[in-house]
Design brief:
The chain is built from two helices and nine strands; from the N terminus they run βββαββββββα. The chain is α+β, with helices and mostly antiparallel strands. Strands 1, 2, 3, 4, 5, 6, 7, 8 and 9 form a nine-stranded mixed sheet that branches.
């Protein structure tokens, strides 16, 4: 079963590119190719393809030379660099990142990618599940305060 196809059951709802599950679903598998294809189809820099109350996952892309405008989140997060190269600023310190790097950022800690020299494709895992509306509000507040 491809989790990106539309399937509805009494226990879970699977939809094109986004999967939300109840606690009664015991697991699912996605290929990186399927997640990346769903991200491309949706457009935009971030696409969340999986969510349960305790965690969520998405694909985040940043082009070389672009500016990462994110604000601190209310969730802990792990980034896995699928491809690309750049730097990440975490709580006052910059760190080089490249394909294969795994990064942890605690909730409410200032962070952003910068000096992106090769397009970044990033798998992002949030715990608890990422609140996209709250993230958008915080990003807007950050722009207004600049």
């Amino acid at each position: 079963m491809n989790p990106f196809d539309t399937i509805a059951t009494s226990r879970a709802v699977f939809s094109i590119g986004r999967v939300s599950m109840t606690n009664q679903v015991r697991g699912s598998v996605w290929s990186l190719d399927d997640a990346l294809a769903a991200h491309r189809k949706a457009g935009g820099a971030y696409f969340q393809f999986f969510a349960v109350p305790e965690m969520s996952a998405g694909i985040y892309t940043l082009a070389a030379g672009s500016i990462d405008g994110q604000a601190p989140h209310v969730e802990d997060e792990i980034y896995y660099i699928v491809s690309g190269r750049g730097q990440i600023f975490i709580d006052g310190t910059s760190h080089p990142v490249e394909t294969g790097a795994t990064i942890f950022v605690a909730r409410e800690v200032e962070h952003r990618f910068h000096d992106i020299t090769e397009d970044l494709t990033i798998l992002v895992i949030f715990a608890p599940a990422h609140d996209e509306a709250e993230s958008d509000r915080r990003r807007a507040d950050q722009v207004e305060g600049a």
